Amino acid sequence: MAFNNSFTAVTGATYTAAQYNTHVRDNLTAIWVFTTAGDTVYATSSTALVRLGIGANGSYYESNGSAPVWTKFYRPGAFLLNTDVALNTGDDAYRFRVPFVINGWNLFSVAGARKSGTGVPNIQIRNVATGFNMLSTALTIDSGETDSSTAATPAVIDPARDDVATGQQIAIDVDGAGTSTLMMQVELVFAKP
């Protein structure tokens, strides 16, 4: 139901039951869309509000581009391993600290992209605290391609080593650099189990 602000009172006018229902009762209904503790409200137009029920425990409030939604995923970002200099092999091409908000969560997905290059870059994700690789099959990008989504051998997350804890460090290791790989990015997504 949309909010209706078309009524204008004038001196001497009679305020009818229909006008009351439209401009008081219906407008209060239009702006009070809550039904449950924890509900939030967002606008779907300049005159309409919609209720978004409380998310599951540990969920995050984020945008899907057109409306707010609840998600159980945490995306720390896409990490750039190099820029306009060819990628080199070696451990710790990038390293980050696990924040408290994903304590006990699991690595859910991993993806990679590059601007250009040939050969097959081979990327491993390592939990520095445990010393274990988090992927049982490394992340690769096929020769001449720019994204891991089309890799002949997709990356596989090791379910026995996918969890993280606050304060641990996650390293991105380059086990194979490919040839002239430029602007290599690695994207990690974590999910609450």
Plain-language structure description:
With 193 residues, the chain is mainly beta. The protein folds into two domains: 33-71, no CATH class; 73-191, Jelly Rolls (Sandwich), CATH 2.60.120. It has one helix and 14 strands. It has one helix at 17-31, and strands spanning 40-43, 49-52, 60-63, 68-71, 73-80, 90-97, 106-113, 116-127, 132-133, 135-137, 139-140, 156-157, 169-182, 185-191. Strands 6, 8, 9, 11 and 13 form a five-stranded antiparallel β-sheet that branches. The protein has a three-stranded antiparallel β-sheet with strand order 5-14-7, with no helix packed on it. Strands 1-2 form a two-stranded antiparallel sheet. The longest helix is centred in the first third of the chain and has 15 residues, at 17-31. The radius of gyration is 26 Å and the shape is elongated. The two termini are 38 Å apart. The model has no long low-confidence stretch (mean pLDDT 88).
CATH topology type of the largest domain: Jelly Rolls
- Report the CATH C-level class of the largest domain: Mainly Beta
Largest sheet: 5 strands, antiparallel
Radius of gyration: 26 Å
Task: Domain count, please report it.
Answer: 2
Mean pLDDT: 88
Count of runs of 4 or more consecutive helical residues: 1
CATH hierarchy: architecture of the largest domain: Sandwich
Number of strands: 14
Report the order of strands and helices.
Answer: HEEEEEEEEEEEEEE
Overall shape: elongated
State the separation between the terminal residues, measured CA to CA: 38 Å
